[in-house]
Amino acid sequence: MARTALNFRPAEAGDFDYIYGLCESTMRAYVEADLGDCFEKVARPTIQRLIQAGLFSLIHDEGVPVGAIAHELHDTHIQLEEIYLEPARQNLGLGAQIMQRLLDQSQALGLPVRLHVLSSNPARRFYERLGFSLTRSTPAVNYLEYQPRGVGEAR
Asked: d(Cα 119, Cα 34) in Å, to the nearest integer?
């Protein structure tokens, strides 16, 4: 897929249904596989909290919503909380393009990006292709980190 001009805008309370629907269509099976029957109990409050905190952005491609991302800047790292991409837009390079923006921010700030992915979710391979490394894991969750070039290297 050719690079496209993506637009990001802060999510608002009225975007909850769209983001929740994306989460359900892309994540429900993994949540249930790794955590049991708790999707509703986990997804709704998590999405609401991230929207209220101003951490979610909607992603548009030529005016069409294609996904959502939530991340938070900390003093020590950038935490990728959630990323959802429309199922029809997956495996076309758009996810890598979205993530490259976050990795560029990581490089510019000299901060690692941290995330977690459920063990059953094949997205772990996607993140590893982008340069993320496994830092720890539990039976249900894998924790990964991306180190920007030059950070932590001997000078």
From this structure: 7
For 57-105, write each residue's pLDDT tens digit: 999 998 999 999 999 999 999 999 999 999 999 999 999 999 999 999 9
Tokens for 125, please give them. 């391979």
Burial class (CB in 10 A: 0-12, 13-18, 19+), 87: exposed
What's the CA gap between 34 and 130, in Å, rounded? Answer: 24
> Which pTM value belongs to this model?
0.91
CB 80 within 8 A of CB 114: yes
DSSP, residue by residue, 104-151: HHHHHHT--EEEEEETT-THHHHHHHTT-EEEEE-SSEEEEEEPPTTT
**What is the tens place of the pLDDT at every residue in 19-62?**
999 999 999 999 999 999 999 999 999 999 999 999 999 999 98
Distance of CA 119 to the CA centre of its chain: 15
